[in-house]
Amino acid sequence: MSQDSVPMLRSYTGGTEPALAEQFERTIARDQRVEPRDWMPEKFRATMIRQIAQHAHSEIIGMQPEGNWITRAPSLRRKAILLAKVQDEAGHGLYLYSACETLGADRTDLTERLITGRQKYSSIFNYPALTFADMGVIGWLVDGAAVCNQVPLCRSSYGPYARAMIRICKEESFHQRQGYELLMTMMSGTAGQRAMVQDAVDRWWWPVLMMFGPPDRESANTAQSMAWKIKRHTNDELRQRFVDMTVPQAEALGVTLPDPDLRWNPERGAHDFGEVDWDEMKQVVAGNGPCNAERIAQRKAAHDEGAWVREAAAARAAKTRKEAAA
Ligand code: BYC
User: Fold this and answer.
1) Ligand 1: does its nearest atom lie under 6 Å from the Cβ of 246?
2) pTM to 2 decimals?
3) Environment class of 114 (CB within 10 Å of its CB; exposed 0-12, middle 13-18, buried 19+)
4) Per residue in 59-118, pLDDT tens?
């Protein structure tokens, strides 16, 4: 709990709005965490619910491209690794839905918003995973981008989100390494295996760069989220960091990143790289990517099939409450 939380809680019940707002701003300025029972501006609450819900949905939908490959993993070891990874993603979704509930959101409502297209999830999961090399590339690049984006969120100003992110990042880092290790193994295999890896890199590279969000000049939320220290870096800063981190990894692996404009710029001390196809990203976020319909249909089917479990759990809880009250 932040040092300010107890006094804030007291003033929350009795304070005037300007005094509460001032205290909120002080918490942010001192780099302390805002906690669930602290007063917060409604826009801050709405922003946190939006970002955390989108993040939770991404974890849950993100189970699908890899989940498809569990039964087709080439060895028991690869199957065990993939199973563990996909289970971790379910866990991440659950911590994040819980974090969202601390803001007053309702989990059933969030799921409803996802399956009716009223809330977003990461564009990356609307691309198909065509070969087992994609399992390696998703680990290396998708989870690598996730680590790059999420490590700074461990210092995000909303306490439950920042704390959830610490564990999530530890697990994402394992996910990234298992992907890289799988690719290293394939790259030391046959010419056909090496070609599969290169093909997967070619298909995933640009969509991975979209994971960091629209360019700063078009990002509607960055300025306010940076001011509130929800985000610690802009979308473009993190995209650049990811490119710089990934280029030497690609060299060590022996693959080519599919960007003719990618080169080291000694003046900037960073890599220059080509422009992402932002129209493609807009299309995918708007629901028109290669797998959007399939992903949502599968999520809806799983939700519908789980209705009896939720009903049974609710009936059991009601019975227990009734017995306790009797
Ligand atoms: N796809 O103003 P902006 C994982 C939305 S899971 C779709 O820059 P913000 C994994 C954005 O939300 C990884 N939508 O927004 C799981 C906003 O929406 P609204 C998921 C996108 O929030 C399983 C609008 O566009 N990671 O790693 O300041 C297996 C304007 O953008 C995307 C997270 O969720 C996108 N790529 O910044 C393997 C990280 N980009 O306002 C791996 C947490 C943007 O129209 N989230 N939008 O509703 C964040 O860090 C930030 O929300 C973002 C966007 C950097 C993504």
Assistant:
1) no
2) 0.94
3) buried
4) 999 999 999 999 999 999 999 999 999 999 999 999 999 999 999 999 999 999 999 999
